[in-house]
Amino acid sequence: MVSGATSSAAPVPSSSTSTQTSPLSTDRPASTNPVDSVAAKEPWSVQSALLNVSNPPPSSPNSPIPFLHLLERLKTTPREGWRRFHIPNGESISDHMYRMSILTMLAPLSLSKELDVNRCTKMALVHDMAEALVGDITPKDGVDKSEKTRRESETMDFLTKELLGRVGNGGAEAGCGLREVWQEYEDNKTLEAKFVHDVDKLELVLQMMEYERRAGGSLDLGEFSWVAEKIVLKEVRQWCAEVLMEREIFWKGLGSNLDHPVKGLQVGRGIIEMAQAERMSQNGDDGQTR
């Protein structure tokens, strides 16, 4: 997942409460990321993560039901990046993946004619699956990229091989397919993977803008705007530029301008201008392909 606006595995009860407040603050602890407790004490493992699961799955089941129960954690766990801002009713990991999957189905024709759209949709629904146990590791957790990859890879092996490997009637084969498409996303070499990575970033920018608008301008989430600069496909950049234009208009309407210390406005302006230049160039190319 994109660093910055990230998620955790299912919350672990805590007796402490952050003193940080915001106009949208709630009584929810600032963070319950399991990475906080595991990383500092012992090397992370799937088994150590399962200690935080109230009803852990049995070993090598012959039914997909334990796998499905474990996925419920994705539905109930808020994304960790937003939690830092005490945003009430914040999106869950599954919320994020759901809108990503819809976005893949809306791929513009210039992309969809080159993509396996069904595979992109599957990839969007699977790409954060490991967070059910790993949590969403952010730069603040002090876990390097190779360690993050190890944890997520071992979790996907557990989910797709240990929990689905002995499921008959196609269950084991389905597990292999989930593992394969997750790895394709991680490797980020195919056009499908690059598209879904871009959609991941776009969904974050959409949510950033929606939370700011919900707060009526009392919450500045512009520190997440940088992800827009990492989008590589011009079709997705066009969508992102529209959202960032909405954001610019929103803040200007509140009396802000490009010189106002609202975070991310200059980044947004750069993406908007890049998208405008690409649109003009595309029109000048008279329908030539990318």
Molecular structure report:
- There is one protein chain.
- Helix 5 (93-105) packs antiparallel against helix 7, helix 9 runs antiparallel to helix 10 and helix 12 (234-253) packs across helix 13 (265-284).
- This protein has 13 helices and no strands.
- The protein is mostly helical and 290 residues long.
- The longest helix has 24 residues, at 191-214.
- The model is unreliable at 3-32 (pLDDT under 50).
List keywords for this structure.
mainly alpha; 13 helices; 290 residues; 54% helix
What's this model, at a glance?
The protein is mostly helical and 290 residues long. It has helices at 34-39, 46-50, 65-76, 80-83, 93-105, 109-112, 117-126, 131-134, 145-162, 171-187, 191-214, 234-253, 265-284.
Order of helices and strands: HHHHHHHHHHHHH
Task: State the distance separating the first and last CA atoms.
Answer: 27 Å
Structural class estimated from helices and strands:
mainly alpha
Largest sheet: none
How many individual β-strands? 0
What's the alpha carbon Rg, rounded to whole Å? 20 Å
Mean pLDDT: 85
Q: What is the share of helical residues? A: 40-55%
- The coarse silhouette is globular
Outline the low-pLDDT stretches: 3-32
List the total number of helices: 13
Strand content: under 5%
